[in-house]
Each structure stands twice: as C-alpha cells, then as structure tokens.
Amino acid sequence: MKGLTINEIEVGQSASYTKTITEADVILFAGITGDNNPAHMNEVYAKETMFKGRIVHGMLSAGLISTVLGMYLPGPGSIYAKQDIKFLAPVRFNDTITATCTVKEKITERNRVIMDCKVTNQDGADVIVGEAVLVVGK
Q1: pLDDT above 90 (res 1)
Q2: What is the rounded CA–CA span in Å between residue 110 and residue 114?
Q3: Is 66 left (phi over 0), alpha (psi -120 to 50) or beta?
Q4: I need a surface site. Which of 54, 79, 102, 123 has the fewest CB within 10 A?
Q5: Helix H or strand E encompassing 116
Q6: What is the pLDDT of residues 16-69, one digit of tens each?
Q7: What is the pTM of this model?
Q8: Within 13 Å and on the Cβ side, how many CA atoms surround 13?
Q9: Please, are residues 55 and 45 in contact by the beta-carbon 8 Å criterion?
Q10: pLDDT for 90
C-alpha cells in the first residue's frame, strides 16, 4: 500500500470516509483511551447534561479525519505534523458521519500539504471543522 507523492497531489483534491458510530465503538474507544467520561458512558448522567443523552467522544469522531489522511489522501506513508479542530455539534450514537479532507495548499519544497478537514453527520450538518498539515510520504 502506497500513498501519493507530493508531485501526485493537486490543490482541490479531496477524499472522504464514512462510518456509523455504534455503542461498541464508543466502549472500545473508552477502553483504549481510558476516557470513561459519563457524558459518553452513563445514560442516566448524560440525560441531565446540555446534550440530554450520551454523546460520542469528540476525538473518536475526529479520528475519522486521520483515516482519510492516512489511508486515502495523501495516504499511507504520510505523517501528521499538525491538526487544528473545532467541535461544532455533538455526534450521537448511531450517527453516520463523514470525514472529508481537501488539499488547500501544497508546499512542494518542504514535502508538505495543508488540508481543510470537515466531519458532517447524516443530515449534512458540520460537526467538526479544521485544518491539518502533513508530511507527504515518499
């Protein structure tokens, strides 16, 4: 498996990844990270929050951006240098979310790309927006 080289990447290129986030995904993420915040894990607690029910970990949702960048564009061999994200809305259990990353700028002499990143839910609402900088693989 090989990703794109800097010369194969063009401004405006984009790639996406879609996944329905299940309760099992949230439980596994909590187990891996140790983030057992009751806003994610305890329905009784979560019903009393501003969200009125459990929500998916923000970083689990943002992780789909990593999937796009590491597997599709630029793809295998690329390495994160920076990621800025803003969480706009909660992701709920069984939401189908899509991460889309678009090449915003190409810095050929430094072998880097700047990507606009966005995660939307099944209703087309933005739940995460941000920007990533990647070192492109060889």
Answers
A1: no
A2: 11
A3: alpha
A4: 123
A5: strand 112-120
A6: 999 999 999 999 999 999 999 999 999 999 999 999 999 999 999 999 999 999
A7: 0.94
A8: 17
A9: no
A10: 97
